[in-house]
Amino acid sequence: MEKLAIDGGPQVRTQGPIVETDVFEKEELDALIEVAQQKKLRRAEATIEYERVIAEWFGVKYAIAVSSGTTALHIALAAFGIGPGDEVIVSPYTFVASDTAVLEQNAIPIFADIDPITLTLDPNDIARRITPRTKAIIPVTISGTLQDMDPIMELAHKHNLWVLEDACQSFGATYKGKMVGTIGHVGVFSSITGKIINTGEGGIVITNDTDLYEKMWGFMDFARKKSLGPASKYHWGLPCTNYRITNMQAAVGIQQMKRAWDMIHKRTENAEYLRTLLADVPGIVLPSEQSYGERVYFYFLIRLLPEILGTDMLNFAIALAAEGTYNLDYLSTTRWMIPQHLEPMFVDKIGYGGTKCPFECPWYEGEVSYYKGLCPTAEKACDEVFWLASVHPLLEKHDLDDIAAAVRKVVFAFIEKKEKGIPINYATDEIRARL
Ligand SMILES: Cc1ncc(COP(=O)(O)O)c(C=O)c1O
To answer: Which of 78, 95, 192, 214 has the smallest number of CB atoms closer than 10 Å to its CB?
Structure first.
């Protein structure tokens, strides 16, 4: 057995952890300088052009660029008319923004369980959780994996529900020949640093529905009416805010869109290379592919099989970090998903202003509670699925070689320890408390 770095052996990688980084070339810089020289820093022509480019790329009628993926989700729910008393079904295997957007509208996130292979919502479980208060479903194509959308659209049609595709991590994926994000009523993407296209911060909504478009446009910009042009004041008498993106971000976004397919394909190439390097490693399951479409890759996810490795994910994560490929400090932000229904804000029903609103609120006629066991498949996935590495386009072959070598080393050492009855306990109480 090769001695693990955590046990005092040599590290697989000594040049420092692999850091997620974005493609940002001369074209992006020139575009940024151009809007600055024009003194057009806030939303203006470059943003309108960015929206046109995005809409054309997705083959939809409308796109709106906003300040983040989170605010994109929010304006979509606002445009659907979601409000107090309403329930919205959402995946528990996601980033927190997918469900806090529901809270922003004072509505109740209802978590349905996921499919263990795709890690996206299980339509049968969605069906079980629909009530007369359900108004929308938010499927999340996590890390570029695919959601079987047909059953969701059938449920939506049957129960008159809105469908908001949170495609923040799956820019460029397709489902049955359609772009992910164009199947539901609205699709949402994030372009924060690290995502498939990058504008530093930023989000996008796309839709074919003119009414939703006009409403979302208004919620993006203080409830102004787009059709009235720049002179438009505040016409809706609705709660409103400012979710505009700047021209600087949009100018970068236009350049990113010129290289979008190249970046997407490079990610897939990196994922395929990792897949080849790890194909024969026991005790792990490699990312799934679905027959109904072409997925993309945000991160490369591996499922750890505790019965073969003889230990839990935290011990694996600690031993892997010691091999030098990634920084353990980012474990709980980028490598390890928390089931959303077990976040303290849900378990303890923490609302704004120190209240339990909207969870316990006179407008809400249902009863909701969030507890362990609510979505067992998602909980198991959170225990076992490790976000091994971003497969961003700037990774070099030797980075991927290091990642795979570190995984192989840890896996084979763990299996040998298990066979010899050597206990694995790197995850001390102190480390568990810190992470
Ligand atoms: C699935 C998902 N939804 C929503 C968001 C929110 O996007 P942003 O960080 O741009 O607000 C993110 C990304 O961070 C995400 O991964």
So the answer is: 214
Mean pLDDT value across residues 230-244: 78
User: With bands split at pLDDT 50, 70 and 90, how would you rate the model's confidence at 327?
Assistant: very high
167 alpha carbon to ligand 1 midpoint, in Å? 9
Q: Is the CB of 190 under 6 A from ligand 1?
A: yes
Q: In the chain, count H helices and then E strands.
A: 15, 13
Mean pLDDT of 90-117: 97
**Mean pLDDT across 350-360:** 93
Q: What's the 1 CA to ligand 1 centre distance in angstroms? A: 41
CATH architecture assigned to 26-258: 3-Layer(aba) Sandwich (3.40)
Tokens of 319: 């031993």
Question: How many whole angstroms separate alpha carbon 370 and alpha carbon 414?
Answer: 35
**Of 3.10.20.90, 3.40.50.720, 3.90.1150.10, 3.90.170.10, which CATH number belongs to 260-337+381-434?**
3.90.1150.10
Q: How far is the CA of 337 from the centre of ligand 1 (A)?
A: 13
Q: Is the CB of 203 under 6 A from ligand 1?
A: yes
Which one of 75, 88, 190 would you pick to mutate in the ligand 1 pocket, going by the greatest count of ligand atoms within 8 A of its CB?
190
Pocket test for ligand 1, best of 22, 70, 102 (most atoms within 8 A of CB): 70
Confidence tier at 231 by pLDDT (50, 70, 90): low
- Residue 68 C-alpha to ligand 1 middle, in angstroms? 7
| Whole-number Cα distances in Å, 427 to 184, 260, 386, 405 | 42, 40, 16, 22
Query: Which neighbouring-strand residues pair with 389?
Result: 300
For the chain, the structural domain boundaries read: 26-258, 260-337+381-434
Same fold, 26-258 and 260-337+381-434: no
Of 24-33, 115-124, 219-228, the least confident: 219-228
Which is the closest atom of ligand 1 to the Cα of 73? 4
User: How, if at all, do strands 174-175 and 293-294 pair?
Assistant: antiparallel
The reported pTM is 0.97
**C-beta 69 within 6 A of ligand 1:** yes
